[in-house]
C-alpha cells in the first residue's frame, strides 16, 4: 500500500502573484477536511438527514474516497490480488466532505470566488448551510461567486458526492431507454451517459474502481475590482521565422463599472516585450482586450531531439488608477506546429481493413490483429490517399512516442516528481510525443509543465472512448461547455500539438451502422465531434490541428489511406512480422503487445500460490479482463511466446520471454514505420506506463521499472539508425535519419553463423539524406535462404558510434541454433554513483536483459545481443548518492545470473557482534 503513505501536506497555501502592489489573493483549502459516508440518498434533503447518524473521519483533499477508506482500514490494498472487488459497494454510497475556514479580509467592491479545479463528479456544495452550486462533470472546472454567502470566521464548506452508479439515473431520467440505444466496449453503458473518466468503469488494463472525490484543489480567490477569467496566447510568424507576433486575448469580468488598464509583459532573460491597453469594465459582464506584441529574433521552441525548449513568462496585469488589482502569469513558448493533410493522391487499391469473418458484430474489437486484417476486394477501387504529417517551425517531424493513460487509477497518488520522472523517461526513450487517451482525463498541470519544459508534444483526446454517446440537445449543450472549458485550460501550452475528438467512437459508430458500412456514413452520426467540437475548435483554437476521432480518415476508420489507424502486429512475429511489414498506414496512433512487468513488481500483486502457471483468474483480472468482459489476453500471448520462442518452464522464464517478445516487436514496429516516413507521419505505441499493477502493453511497469521494450524502443527511435528490411522475402539494409544530412557514412553488414563464422560482408559509403529514410545496401539474398536458424545479420556504421548496431534473425527464435552458452560479468566502480559492468559471452547470446529492484538505475544499454567471444561494457548509475545492491542478468533460453555492486559506505559487521 505504498500509495497510502504519499500524503499531501496539510498547509494553507497563500500566494501573492508577481507584484508587490497586487492584492489579489488565492487561498487553497487543503486542511481540516473530514468525510463520512452512507447509502445513496435520492435527494440532498435525505442526505442531510442520513448525515446525522454518521461519524466524521479525517480526510485528505485533494483526494479520492477510496484512498480515504484505505487509510481508515475500510478497504484493503486495492492493487493486490483481486481486492478491487471489495470496493464495489463504494459506487453506491454517498460521501460527504466538510471543512472550516476563515475568510481573508475584503475591501469595498471586492468579490470572492470559490473555485473547484476537479470534482468527481455529482456534487452538491453548501457554504454556511446554503447551496451555492451543483456539478455533474468531472472534466470541467467550476467557479462560484460566494461574496454574499461568506462570513469573516468559521465558514462551513460541505460537499455531497452522490453515488455515481445511482445518481446518474436521477440526472438522466430516461437513462435506461437512452442506454439501450447505445453501444460501448466493456458493457457498462452508464459510463456513456456520465461525464466521468471512462476507464474507471473497467477497461482492459484497469480494474473497475469508479472513482469519486475532490481530486484537484479547492481555492478561494479574492478579486478587488475585476477578475481575469482567461488569457489566450498564440503566435504568428513571418515565413523565415525571423519575426513573430504574439496575440494575447484577455477576458475580464468586472465587479462594478469602471475604466482600467490591461498590461501584458513577455519576458525571457533580459528580453522584455510589453503592451498596454485601456479597457472599460462592466458589472458581472465579460470584456475582452485583444492585444499584439511584436517579437524580433524569437527563440523558437523545438520538440525533443531537434533543439531547445526556451520558455517565456507571460504576465498580465489588470490595473485601476495605476494599481495592480489582479494578475495572471504562465510559461509560454514561441513556436508553430502544423499538420499537413494534403495533397490528395488518387490510388487504385485491392483491399480494405477489417475483420476476416462474415460475423460483422465482431468488427468493433480493436485489440487483436484479426480486426485489422487485409480483406481482398472483389475488384480494385480508386481511393483518396492523404498524408498526416506534423511540421514544427516549418520542419517535418516524424512522430515517435506513446499513448498515455493516467499514471495511476487515483490521480492524487501521483506526485509532481513522478510526473517529471515519467516525462523525462519519455524524452530519454527518444520520443517526441505523448497522446493523452480519451478514456482518461485532462492531465494534472504538472504533466503539461514537464512536457513544455522537456519538449514532448501532446496529442490531446477529448474524453470519449470506444462507444456511442447521446446526441440529444441537453447532452450536447453540456458537451459544448465542457469542450470550451478544456480548450481554454490547455490552449496556451507549448506542448499541445493536436486535439482529437475521441478514442474509437467513429469506429464504433461506423461498425454499428452496418447498413451504411460501405458508405462510411455511420461514423459521421456522432454530433459531439462532427458538429459540436468542430464548431468550438473553429472559434476557440482555430490554428491547431483537430482530428475528429482516432482512428478516422480515408473513408472509414480503419483505412490505411488517410488519417490514423491501429496496428497490433508487434505481438505476432509469425512470417517475419507480416502484419507490420505490409502496413501502408499514414499514421499509427496505437499499436503494441503485452509484456510482463519485472518479477519483483509481479510478486507485489499476484499471490505467490497463483504465480505459476499463468492460467488463473488472478492473471486474467490483471491482464485485460473486467467483470463485464473477458479478453483472454493471457492465452494469445502464451501462444505467441511458445510458438516463437518455445515453452517456458517457470514464471521467471515466462516474464523474460514476454518482455523479449514485446521488445523485439516494438523494435520492428518502429523500424517499419520510420522506414516509410515519406508516407507515414508517425507511430504512437500503446502504451507508455502501467496505470495499476498489471500485465499490459506498457514499456514501464507500475513500479517504474523499464521493461526490455523501453530499451529497444530507445534504439529504434534514435535520431539515426539502421534496419534490415524484408519486402517480398528480399532483404536489404536501410538508413533512417531525423537529422540534417550526414555524409561519408561507412555502412557494414555481416551475415554470420551463430558459431561466429563470417559468411559474407557488405560495405558501402553513402550520405544519409536529411530527415528521410533510404536504401543503404541491397543484400541480394532472401529470408528463406538464411532462415534455417543458423544465421543472423549484423549491421552498423563503422565511423559513427551514435548509430546502434542492429541484429536481424531471419528465423523464428525457436529455430535458432544457439548453444547453451555462458556469460560472465565483472564489476568496476568508476565513482560513487557509477559502475561499469563488463559482460563476456562464450556463445552467441541474444537478448541479454539486466534487472534491478531499484527502478531509478540508469543503464547505458540493456536488452542487447552478444556475439560469440564478445565483450560489452555497460555503465550503471544513479542520479544521486551511491550505487549498490544486487543485480541479475538473463539471456536466451532463460539463463540467469547475479552480480553484486558492493557499497563503499556500508561496513560488514562480523558474526556475533
Written description of the protein model:
With 913 residues, the protein is an alpha+beta fold. 17% of the residues lie in helices and 35% in strands. The chain contains 15 helices and 48 strands. The strands form 13 sheets. Strands 4-3-5-11-8-9 form a six-stranded antiparallel sheet. It has a six-stranded parallel sheet with strand order 30-29-28-27-26-33, covered by helices on one side. β1 and β2 (25-28) form a beta hairpin. α13 crosses α14. The longest helix has 25 residues, at 651-675. It is globular, with a radius of gyration of 29 Å.
What's the structural blueprint in terms of helices and strands?
Layout: E1 13-16, E2 25-28, E3 34-39, H1 44-51, E4 57-58, H2 65-71, E5 93-101, E6 111-116, E7 119-120, E8 122-127, E9 130-136, E10 142-145, E11 155-161, H3 164-171, H4 175-180, E12 213-214, E13 218-223, E14 226-237, E15 243-254, E16 258-268, E17 271-281, E18 286-296, E19 312-320, E20 323-332, E21 337-340, E22 345-354, E23 373-385, E24 389-392, E25 395-397, E26 399-404, H5 416-428, E27 433-436, H6 445-454, E28 457-461, H7 473-490, E29 496-500, H8 505-512, H9 527-540, E30 545-547, E31 565-566, H10 574-581, E32 588-590, H11 599-602, H12 617-621, H13 633-644, H14 651-675, E33 682-685, H15 708-716, E34 720-727, E35 730-737, E36 742-753, E37 758-768, E38 772-782, E39 791-797, E40 806-808, E41 823-831, E42 834-841, E43 845-852, E44 858-859, E45 864-866, E46 871-877, E47 885-891, E48 895-901
Parallel strand pairs: 26-27, 26-33, 27-28, 28-29, 29-30, 31-32
Antiparallel strand pairs: 1-2, 2-13, 3-4, 3-5, 5-11, 6-10, 6-13, 7-12, 8-9, 8-11, 14-15, 15-18, 16-17, 16-19, 19-20, 21-24, 22-23, 24-25, 34-35, 35-38, 36-37, 36-39, 39-40, 41-42, 42-46, 43-45, 43-47, 44-46, 47-48
Helix pairs in contact: 5-6, 7-9, 13-14, 14-15
Amino acid at each position: 500500500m505504498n500509495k497510502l503513505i504519499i500524503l499531501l501536506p496539510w498547509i494553507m497555501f497563500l500566494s501573492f502573484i508577481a507584484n508587490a502592489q497586487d492584492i489579489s489573493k488565492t487561498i487553497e483549502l487543503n486542511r481540516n477536511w473530514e468525510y463520512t459516508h452512507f447509502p445513496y440518498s435520492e435527494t440532498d434533503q435525505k442526505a442531510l438527514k442520513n448525515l446525522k447518524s454518521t461519524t466524521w473521519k479525517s480526510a485528505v483533499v485533494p483526494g479520492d474516497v477510496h484512498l480515504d477508506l484505505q487509510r481508515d482500514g475500510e478497504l484493503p490494498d486495492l492493487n493486490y490480488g483481486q481486492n478491487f472487488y471489495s470496493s464495489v459497494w463504494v459506487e453506491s454510497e454517498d460521501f460527504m466532505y466538510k471543512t472550516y475556514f476563515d475568510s481573508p479580509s475584503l475591501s469595498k467592491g471586492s468579490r470572492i470566488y470559490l473555485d473547484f479545479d476537479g470534482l468527481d463528479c455529482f456534487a452538491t456544495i453548501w457554504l454556511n448551510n446554503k447551496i451555492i452550486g451543483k456539478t455533474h462533470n468531472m472534466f470541467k472546472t467550476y467557479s462560484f461567486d460566494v461574496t454574499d454567502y461568506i462570513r469573516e470566521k468559521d465558514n462551513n464548506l460541505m460537499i455531497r458526492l452522490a453515488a455515481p452508479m445511482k445518481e446518474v439515473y436521477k440526472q438522466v431520467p430516461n437513462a435506461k431507454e437512452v442506454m439501450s440505444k447505445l453501444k460501448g466496449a466493456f458493457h457498462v453503458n452508464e459510463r456513456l451517459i456520465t461525464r466521468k473518466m471512462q476507464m474507471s468503469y473497467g477497461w482492459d488494463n484497469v480494474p473497475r474502481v469508479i472513482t469519486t472525490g475532490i481530486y484537484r484543489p479547492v481555492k478561494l480567490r479574492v478579486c478587488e475590482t475585476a477578475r481575469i477569467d482567461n488569457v489566450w496566447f498564440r503566435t504568428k510568424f513571418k515565413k523565415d521565422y525571423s519575426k513573430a507576433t504574439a496575440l494575447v486575448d484577455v477576458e475580464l469580468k468586472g465587479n462594478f463599472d469602471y475604466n482600467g488598464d490591461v498590461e501584458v509583459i513577455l519576458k525571457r532573460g533580459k528580453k522584455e516585450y510589453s503592451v498596454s491597453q485601456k479597457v472599460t469594465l462592466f458589472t458581472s459582464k465579460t470584456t475582452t482586450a485583444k492585444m499584439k506584441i511584436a517579437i524580433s529574433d524569437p527563440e523558437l521552441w523545438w520538440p525533443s531531439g531537434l533543439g531547445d525548449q526556451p520558455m517565456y513568462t507571460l504576465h498580465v496585469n489588470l490595473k485601476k488608477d495605476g494599481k495592480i488589482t489582479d494578475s495572471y502569469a504562465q510559461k509560454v513558448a514561441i513556436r508553430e506546429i502544423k499538420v499537413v493533410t494534403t495533397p490528395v493522391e488518387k490510388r487504385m487499391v485491392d483491399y480494405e481493413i477489417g475483420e476476416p469473418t462474415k460475423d460483422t458484430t465482431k468488427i468493433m474489437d480493436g485489440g487483436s490483429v484479426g480486426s485489422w486484417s487485409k480483406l481482398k476486394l472483389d475488384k480494385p477501387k480508386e481511393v483518396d490517399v492523404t498524408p498526416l504529417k506534423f511540421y514544427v517551425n516549418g520542419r517535418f517531424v516524424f512522430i515517435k512516442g506513446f499513448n498515455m493513460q493516467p499514471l495511476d487509477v487515483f490521480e492524487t497518488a501521483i506526485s509532481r516528481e513522478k510526473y517529471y520522472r515519467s516525462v523525462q523517461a519519455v524524452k530519454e526513450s527518444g520520443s517526441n510525443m505523448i497522446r493523452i487517451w480519451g478514456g482518461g482525463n485532462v492531465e494534472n498541470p504538472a504533466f503539461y509543465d514537464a512536457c513544455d519544459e522537456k519538449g514532448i508534444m501532446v496529442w490531446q483526446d477529448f474524453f470519449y472512448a470506444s462507444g456511442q454517446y447521446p446526441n440529444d440537445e441537453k447532452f450536447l449543450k453540456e458537451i459544448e461547455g465542457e469542450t470550451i472549458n478544456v480548450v481554454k485550460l490547455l490552449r496556451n501550452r507549448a506542448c499541445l500539438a493536436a486535439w482529437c475528438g475521441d478514442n474509437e467512437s467513429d469506429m464504433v459508430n461506423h461498425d454499428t451502422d452496418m447498413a451504411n458500412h460501405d458508405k462510411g456514413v455511420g461514423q459521421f452520426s456522432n454530433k459531439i465531434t462532427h458538429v459540436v467540437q468542430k464548431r468550438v475548435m473553429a472559434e476557440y483554437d482555430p490554428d491547431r490541428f483537430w482530428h475528429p476521432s482516432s482512428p478516422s480518415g480515408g473513408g472509414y476508420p480503419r483505412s490505411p489511406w488517410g488519417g490514423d489507424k491501429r496496428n497490433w502486429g508487434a505481438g505476432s512475429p509469425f512470417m517475419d512480422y507480416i502484419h507490420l511489414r505490409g502496413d501502408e498506414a499514414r499514421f499509427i496512433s496505437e499499436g503494441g503487445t503485452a509484456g510482463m512487468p519485472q518479477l519483483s513488481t509481479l510478486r507485489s500483486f499476484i499471490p505467490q500460490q497463483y504465480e505459476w502457471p499463468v492460467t488463473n483468474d488472478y492473471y486474467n483480472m490483471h491482464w485485460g479482463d473486467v467483470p463485464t468482459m473477458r479478453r483472454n489476453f493471457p492465452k494469445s500471448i502464451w501462444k505467441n511466446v511458445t510458438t516463437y520462442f518455445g515453452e517456458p518452464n517457470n514464471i521467471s522464464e515466462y516474464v523474460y520471454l514476454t518482455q523479449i517478445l514485446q521488445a523485439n516487436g516494438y523494435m520492428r514496429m518502429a523500424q517499419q514505420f520510420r522506414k516509410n516516413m515519406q508516407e507515414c507521419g508517425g507511430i504512437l505505441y500503446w502504451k507508455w506506463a502501467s496505470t495499476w499493477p498489471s500485465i499490459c502493453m506498457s514499456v514501464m511497469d507500475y513500479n517504474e521499472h523499464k521493461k526490455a521494450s523501453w530499451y529497444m524502443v530507445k534504439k529504434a527511435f534514435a535520431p539515426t539508425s539502421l534496419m534490415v528490411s524484408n519486402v517480398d522475402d528480399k532483404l536489404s539494409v536501410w538508413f533512417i535519419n531525423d537529422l540534417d544530412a550526414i555524409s561519408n557514412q561507412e555502412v557494414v553488414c555481416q551475415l554470420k553463423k551463430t558459431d561466429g563464422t563470417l559468411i559474407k560482408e557488405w560495405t558501402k559509403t553513402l550520405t544519409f539524406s536529411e530527415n528521410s529514410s533510404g536504401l543503404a545496401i541491397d543484400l541480394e539474398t532472401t529470408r528463406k535462404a538464411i532462415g534455417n536458424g543458423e544465421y543472423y545479420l549484423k549491421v552498423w556504421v563503422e565511423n559513427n558510434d551514435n548509430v546502434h548496431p542492429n541484429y536481424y534473425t531471419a528465423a523464428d527464435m525457436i529455430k535458432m541454433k544457439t548453444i547453451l552458452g555462458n556469460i560472465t560479468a565483472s564489476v568496476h566502480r568508476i565513482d560513487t554513483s557509477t559502475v561499469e559492468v563488463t559482460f563476456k559471452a562464450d556463445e552467441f547470446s541474444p537478448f541479454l536483459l539486466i534487472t534491478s529492484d531499484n527502478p531509478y538505475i540508469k543503464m547505458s544499454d540493456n536488452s542487447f545481443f552478444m556475439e560469440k567471444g564478445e565483450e560489452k561494457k555497460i555503465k550503471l548509475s544513479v542520479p544521486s548518492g551511491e550505487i549498490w545492491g544486487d543485480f541479475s542478468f538473463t539471456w536466451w533460453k532463460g539463463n540467469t545470473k547475479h552480480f553484486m555492486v558492493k557499497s563503499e559506505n556500508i561496513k560488514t559487521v562480523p558474526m556475533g557482534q
